[in-house]
Write a structure and sequence with these properties.
The chain is an alpha+beta fold and 279 residues long. It folds into two domains: 211 residues; 52 residues. The chain is globular.
Length: 279
């Protein structure tokens, strides 16, 4: 079967607009039952075909989930997808805004087009409570604590391997960057799943419909063009250097706000005096 590549913002947005597909994807990653999933009405950034810049994709959902112990609770699901490491600053900004405007516990899902240190294609981090005196784990259910901590899930697209043993592995196989229809484009790929289940079947069929949709194909072509355009201008090595420079500039600005003198900032960031004075 031919499907549209879900790593593209255009495809992923159309996939997540189908509520049953979105519930299956979120529930499979979180390993829980998603009873309801309602997309936030707040405006978010993603690929804009009228722009030469591709911004990180972000969607928020108010969800009701049922956990392993049978507990039903309402949470905010923040889903962010990005191709570039530099977007970590934007991730933090969006997460901070959610702490300001939402009183629900926050769960974040990051779908990344670059590799982190861990070789696992999918992992999660949790905020455990530990007694500082005894080092024992604590069960703390206070609303105050829950509001200031959150669980995060990380999906590394480039580390996905063709495994089909679990429901999560079958879902991740859809995101594997392989089996493209030709060598010049990654917009469409062929997929073959064994023992496909109803929820995943709906996701695959949805991606198949997107691949056949004329408007979607045009948007995907534009999105791919801009991705290639950015690579052609900067190149991978130049982009890495540009990302590093950007982070150093931001660090220098923060140090200036804190009152650090120019010489100290130069030693810490290795930026020139002239660069720092222009900030």
């Amino acid at each position: 079967m031919i499907i549209a590549n879900p790593i593209y913002d255009t495809t992923f947005k159309m996939l997540m607009q189908d509520n049953e597909s979105a519930k299956f994807l979120v529930g499979t990653i979180l390993d829980c039952e998603v009873i309801s999933l309602v997309e936030s009405t707040k405006e978010r950034t993603f690929f804009h075909e009228d722009s030469s810049r591709v911004t990180p994709f972000l969607m928020d959902f108010a969800a009701t989930i049922r956990t392993e112990d049978g507990e039903t609770k309402k949470v905010l699901i923040e889903l962010q997808k990005s191709q570039h490491y530099i977007d970590i600053a934007r991730f933090r900004k969006y997460l901070g805004s959610e702490y300001v405007y939402s009183d629900l516990p926050i769960i974040t899902i990051y779908i990344l087009g670059f590799n982190l240190e861990s070789e696992s294609p999918a992992f999660k981090t949790t905020s455990e409570c530990v007694d500082l005196i005894t080092n024992e784990k604590l069960e703390v259910r206070d609303h105050f604590v829950k509001q200031l901590t959150h669980t995060a899930y990380f999906i590394q697209i480039k580390r996905i391997k063709p495994e089909y043993n679990t429901k999560l592995e079958k879902l991740l196989s859809i995101f594997e960057q392989a089996n493209f229809l030709d060598n010049t484009s990654k917009r469409f790929k062929g997929i073959e799943l064994i023992d496909i289940e109803s929820g995943l079947n709906r996701v695959v069929n949805r991606l198949n419909l997107i691949a056949a949709d004329k408007d979607a194909r045009e948007k995907l072509e534009n999105e791919e063009y801009y991705q290639l355009h950015l690579e052609a201008i900067y190149g991978k090595e130049s982009r890495k250097a540009m990302q590093l420079d950007s982070k150093l500039m931001e660090a220098a600005k923060e140090l200036k706000k804190m009152g650090a003198d120019t010489d100290t900032i130069a030693k810490i960031t290795e930026l020139s005096i002239e660069e720092i004075e222009k900030l």
